[in-house]
Amino acid sequence: MEDRKPKLDEEASFHRKEDEMTKVNRREFLKSSAAVLGAVAVSEGIPSIVSKNGSSAEAAEPAPVYEIYALKYAGPFTSKLAMVFWNEGWNEEIDRNYYLWVIKGMGENIIVDTGTGITEGTKRKLKGYVNPVDVLARIGVNASNVTKVIITHIHFDHVGGMEMFPQAFPKATFYVQKKEFDFWIKDPIGKRRPFVGITDTLANKALAALEGTERLKLVSGDKKIMPGMELLLVPGHTIGLQAVMVNTAKGPAIVASDCAHIARSFKEDNPSCLITDMIAWLKSYDKLRTKAPLDFIFPGHDVIMLQNYPKVAEDITRLV
Predict the structure, then answer these.
(1) Which value, in Å, is the radius of gyration of the alpha carbons in the chain?
(2) How far apart are CA 90 and CA 3, in angstroms?
(3) Domain map of the chain by residue range?
(4) What share of the chain is helix, strand, coil (3-state, %, to 5)?
(5) Are the beta carbons of 282 and 259 closer than 8 angstroms?
(6) What sign does the dihedral 29-34-39-43 (CA atoms) show?
(7) Distances from the Cα of 130 to the Cαs of 52, 90, 139, in angstroms?
(8) Cβ contacts of 238 within 8 Å, gap of 6 or more
(9) What residues are paired with 93 via a beta bridge?
């Protein structure tokens, strides 16, 4: 029995060492496996599933940074405040400008809205009117460097430039909400007096001519069209108005166009008199206010966009 005990002790010691070696080998295997997975992820261009501290995490790509410019092409125009601020200020007057916008970033110039066409601008005798194509040229935006034009809605002062834009910017793809397109281009209601007076039939024909081609993208709801850039459906002023949200050096900012005519509307929760659906409009305000700070939601016609921001060229300012 004395002889048996030492052998048992030796066997137990052997198994303990074997277990320890197995644990060490398992740890080494896991480490080497993680290293291989990380190397494969890098070589394949996909985020590593293992971070430096060993936890699962994806390497986040930094969002591109854009700049937003406001370009005045007509105005100022004077009207009663109540026109742009629902049923308030019938005894007050307010000035407003007509704008289009340019978003610069990722090596691209993205135009937001097309302004008023030459024919419609002449017919309406717009004060201070300049061909929007010529205004864009002041900051180097021309046929060679525009690949995207976003149409926020199909009113004459935002879509009218379609009279010139398909030819002026031959490389451009045009983005409009499908609901907006179908109403103004195809719905007989859109041809009736309350609507036909605020659109541009010549521009609408030019837009309709692009249907079925690669140059027209009909969007359904919210859609990211570039890294750090998203189209947002915000109906109310029209049936399918869209805003454009981008990442900037100061965080998210939104070209809201006529989701409000003046900045005060977003702050005081009161839109303009030009309404298709008031309930939808107020819900659109709720939506935009969750996306960006009020100071970075830019309206469609407010003179402060020309007065309160750095001037970069004649009638052009950098908003952010």
Answers:
(1) 29
(2) 112
(3) 1-60, 67-318
(4) 40, 25, 40
(5) no
(6) positive
(7) 57, 30, 15
(8) 153, 154, 155, 180, 183, 258, 276
(9) 80
How confident is the model over 108-166, as pLDDT tens digits? 999 999 999 999 999 999 999 999 999 999 999 999 999 999 999 999 999 999 999 99
Task: Mark residue 203 as left, alpha or beta (left: phi above 0; alpha: psi -120 to 50; beta: remaining).
Answer: alpha
Q: In this structure, is the dihedral angle defined by the CA atoms of residues 117, 304, 257 and 260, taken in order, positive or negative?
A: negative
Q: Give 136's contacts (C-beta < 8 A, 6+ positions apart).
A: 71, 100, 102, 111, 142
Return d(Cα 300, Cα 306) in angstroms, integer.
Answer: 12
What superfamily would CATH give domain 67-318?
Answer: Ribonuclease Z/Hydroxyacylglutathione hydrolase-like (3.60.15.10)
pTM strictly above 0.85 = no
Separation CA 319–CA 235 (nearest Å): 24
User: Six-digit token pair at 257?
Assistant: 């166009």
Q: Which residues contact 307 (CB under 8 A, 6 or more apart)?
A: none
